Amino acid sequence: MGLFFHIGRYAAFLGQVLRRPEKGSVFRKLLLEEMNGIGIQSLGIVALLSVFMGAVICIQTAHQIGGWIPVYTIGFTVRQTMILEFSPTLIPVILAGKVGSNIASQLGTMRVTEQIDALEIMGINSANYLVLPKMIAALACIPFLVILSMGLGIGAGMWVGVSTGVSSVADFEYGMRIDFNAFDVTYALIKTCVFALIISSVSAYHGYHTSGGALEVGRSSTKAVVYAVVIVMVANLLLTQMLLG
Amino acid sequence: MIEVKDLSKSFGDQKVLRGVSAQFLPGKMNFIIGRSGSGKSVLTKCIVGLHHPERGSVLYDGRDFTAMEREGKKDIRKEIGMLFQGSALFDSMTVLENVMFPLRMFSDESAEKNRERAMVCLERVELPGAGNKFPSELSGGMQKRVGIARAIAMNPRYLFCDEPNSGLDPQTAIVIDNLIGDLTREFGMTTVVVSHDMNSVIEASDNVHFVHEGTIAWRGESEALLAGGHPALDEFIFASKLMRQLRQTLRP
């Protein structure tokens, strides 16, 4: 099916999703469940990857700089890499794999086992009931995960730099502070919010429109991750040009 | 009463329903039968609004469902209960939560009242002790009964059952048929059952609509079914050896 078909169906899907929830108390309960699934249960993987990435960036930078480049460059590079690209872009890409496939397979299974039809028969807007809590939970949690990732990455970089003797605490801290522009964090968070919406809505779109059986649920899950990652990458380029260009 | 008038539905070039008209009576077990691929499931999905027909109308006690906007349809859907072929229970919820679900979404009663109502429904389907189990812990027959309990939780005026006996042994199938029949008479619901299980049709139906090549090829009371009247219906009914032997007994 053509690109325009999917764009049109995605827009119609969002039109169904972005409506007032049927019942506030039920929505709040679902939102908390989704925040647990998307946010709390992603803490471990985000923390682990951020710590290792911060440490690796520190060691690589120390390896690259010669005697004539100041040592504080290590702190500067770790900060800039974590804040500008690793945390706001690669963490959402990783979450597209973890959260996106989970959303798509959950909705796909509900579709092929007629659970979504059961919701519709009851008079419930199934897209709104199932997807809106996921999108809002992603929007609320992923920026926090990204901020956590920034902090852990920079902290791990500093710890590895000091413990391996490539930098002193003072040099690393100086590098971290030098030429700091607070807009970089704003830029990172704007990107993150957009990516959170892309990951949750694109994977939900693929899961919701699954037809067939178990095989198609697997296919939808794979497609959800691939499309979410590609769209995140394209959006990253566009947003970077718009915000920094 | 549910009235279907001149309903047509196609998927691409394939015409599945070709001007179907039918009436489903209140307090009766109205069966839609037919071979696989004849269009009976599509017909049911058009009646409940899961598919949008290209032509024709569906009237719920005179209210034109097909012409309604989303909000109007929502009101009618609150009067519909449906038992799905695979039960379609929400697997993340317990049995009690499943039955309480429509009440939680649409009832203004307290959680305690909703729980009481759900327990009454579970008792009615003879599963009072299964409330804390998850659907995956139940047998196929028990899942169907939970599906029925959820379908009747909101006191529906219309009950749809899609292949309620599929995957069940003959004895459990009869239990499910009898349960649906008893509830239909007890609450005066307009019940529509989609089936190709002849045991079930003979055992439980009041009115039968035979769908063949996208049209209602035969309709009548269940007593008239075995007398035949349409070649495709005869082929369908007497497909098994047992039924052919029965025909020879009936028509020496």
Q: In which range does the helix fraction of chain B lie?
A: 25-40%
Please give the alpha-carbon distance between the first and last residues of chain A. Answer: 35 Å
Q: Summarize the biggest pleated sheet of chain A.
A: none
* Total strands of chain B: 10
Structural class of chain A: mainly alpha
What distance lies between the first and last C-alpha atoms of chain B, to the nearest angstrom?
39 Å
Largest sheet of chain B: 6 strands, mixed
Helix content of chain A: over 70%
Alpha-beta content class of chain B: alpha/beta
- Output the strand order for the largest sheet of chain B: 6-7-8-3-9-10
Mean pLDDT of chain B: 89
Oligomeric status: heterodimer
SSE pattern of chain B: EEEHEEHEHHHEHEHEEHH
- What characteristic shape of chain A results from the CA principal axes? elongated
Q: Which range does the strand content of chain B fall in?
A: 15-25%
Q: Greatest contact pair?
A: A-B, 13 and 24 residues
Low-confidence stretches of chain A: none
Tally the beta strands of chain A.
Answer: 0
Q: What is the arithmetic mean of pLDDT of chain A? A: 94
Q: If helices are DSSP runs of H or I spanning 4 or more residues, what is the number of helices of chain A?
A: 9
Would you write up a description of this structure?
The complex is a heterodimer of chains A (245) and B (252). By secondary structure, chain A is mainly α. In chain A, 83% of the residues lie in helices and 0% in strands. Chain A has nine helices and no strands. Chain A has helices at 3-17, 24-38, 43-64, 73-112, 115-121, 126-163, 169-177, 183-208, 214-244. Chain A is elongated. By secondary structure, chain B is of the alpha/beta class. In chain B, 39% of the residues lie in helices and 25% in strands. Chain B has a six-stranded mixed beta sheet with strand order 6-7-8-3-9-10, sandwiched between helices. A four-stranded antiparallel beta sheet of chain B has the order 2-1-4-5, covered by helices on one side. In chain B, strand 4 (55-60) and strand 5 form a beta hairpin. In chain B, helix 3 (95-106) packs parallel to helix 5. The longest helix of chain B is centred in the last third of the chain and has 18 residues, at 170-187. The chains are: A mainly alpha (245), B alpha/beta (252).
